[in-house]
Amino acid sequence: MYACHAREQATTKAGGRRDGERGVRANKQPRTVGHRGASALAPENTILAVERAIEHGLDLVEVDVHLSRDGELVVVHDGEVQLDGRASPVGGLDAAELARIPLGEGQGVPRLAEVLALARGRIGVYVELKGRHTGAALGDLVTSGGAAGAEVISGSFEPELVEELRAAAPAVPRSVLFRPTGSAAMIAICAAVGARYAHPCFRPLTPTIVGELHAAGLMVMAPHTNDPAEARAFADLGIDVLASDDPRVLSPSRAT
Question: Which CATH number, 3.30.70.20, 3.40.640.10, 3.30.70.2190, 3.20.20.190, labels domain 24-67+112-250?
């Protein structure tokens, strides 16, 4: 097992949970996440999508981030955007230019700082690190006070970006997202970067996988789903975090 940074508090097994961390295992219900915001109800990864997730009483909103040309963390899934009918790299545009790209319903590409300001005290933010150096940039944003008062969790398919975040802001809870991978490898990778969450983004997600990850001290994020029956099945497995594009799949009784 890999050692954690000295500044981090001790954790259990591979990632573990710090004392007082709010998690689903204590509540017996998964925490609910709006995938790219409530993206079934508004353009994905926009301020409006975050507002819809808040309105539906979700616990967290997941957003994707890249760096703009002027070094801002911007909320967009792909590394390219459509501008004047052609694909343009996100990193080749300033945040102000990205904000003017029409995404529908009056929305443009927001800065992560705007999402955090909206979310503060209302909903947690699960930041998926997509582009180069986004882990370090998120760490700098957090340590400079840009996320003060907001719950932030962050992860990536790229362990190197998760390690960047650990080096810059070790207190931020981390996850690693996985394509089809065995439990032992997921546990080892999470241990290497001090992740508390394993996020298997594949199916089938079996009771054995969930049990092995939990036994290693990890919390488990399920693949996002828009199928109510699958959402119930994931919850019945005892997973800790459950995401959907449509908040009504996750918490119909809370919808407004």
Answer: 3.20.20.190
